[in-house]
Model the fold of this input.
Amino acid sequence: MSNASKPRLLVDLQAIEHNFRAVKRLVGEKVDVSAVVKSDAYGLGVDPVVSSLASAGCKSFFAADVDEAVRIRRRLPDADIFVLSGYRARRKAQYRHDRLVPVCNTLGEARAITSMGYSYAMNLETGFSRLGLNQSDVCRFIHLNQRSPVLVMSHLACADDPRHPLNALQRDRFIGIAGLLGNVRRSLAASSGLLLGAAYRFDQVRIGSAIFGIGNADFKTDPFLPVIRLRARIVDTRLFQAGATVGYMATFRTSRPTWIAVIAAGYAHGFPWSLANRMSVEVGSYRAPVVGRVSMEYAAIDVTDIPAALRRPGLWVELISTSQPVEKLAGPAATIPQELLTRLGQSSQRRYRTNSAGEQT
Done:
């Protein structure tokens, strides 16, 4: 499939800037806001995204790995850039040359980098059970009189549920372990942790999803703007008689004469196979259900009730919009919006909206 036929992901950079400023207002002047732009800024494109965030006042960023961090440094010579994948000895020259701050996830990493004299951050294990130094590791680290990190951080496992008891337990563990390291900057909350209040914010919050306009439905008054829209072209429209089957395994059968439009969006582009017969798309001001299975590069929609002028090949339909955000696709697909966004962003044409009047490539 040519690029012209691929789904088009529209990214509103002004909305990203608005959302960053909304987080700043929410947490107050005493708390720094770092942008998490791992996995190519959640599939939205790290280069234009970090440039927009910097123009909105963002001064620190978290990247997935060294290569992603180097891309950010080329754009932003003065930003603080943290590398979540940890310290890798083979990249030690790169950390120094590009002033990157690795987030150490093991005692071995922390000991190795302190011997080099580089700045580093330390991830603490407080209950997520994935990466990080536990209390015993930190005690051993202190016993060796190692140089302190510039930031200690941890990650909440259940912040999506403000009532979950693990939230308070992790906060208390974080306070206790971080306290062993003395007067160092602390960061515990990510996007979902914003709902837990000031007791979880410490010196710095690390925000990804909220900036990108996803996962914010639990706010009583949502302060964030939608960031993305996803469009796909109609490539064919045909009339089928009652009793016709559509797609693999004939999971949909027409009950009347039915106009079927084929759109250029499939699971190769991140449009989930599991959404077959479970969602609809927007065609102008109308809605058209997805019928039959989603295939690798195409899906079928029932446009029988759509005016003929709107269902012609070459026209666009919208899969994600302000009225159908990515969360509404994630639920029926039995996944999370972050997974959908990264997959869709990697395989779609990306276009960037910089103002209300137009778009830029």
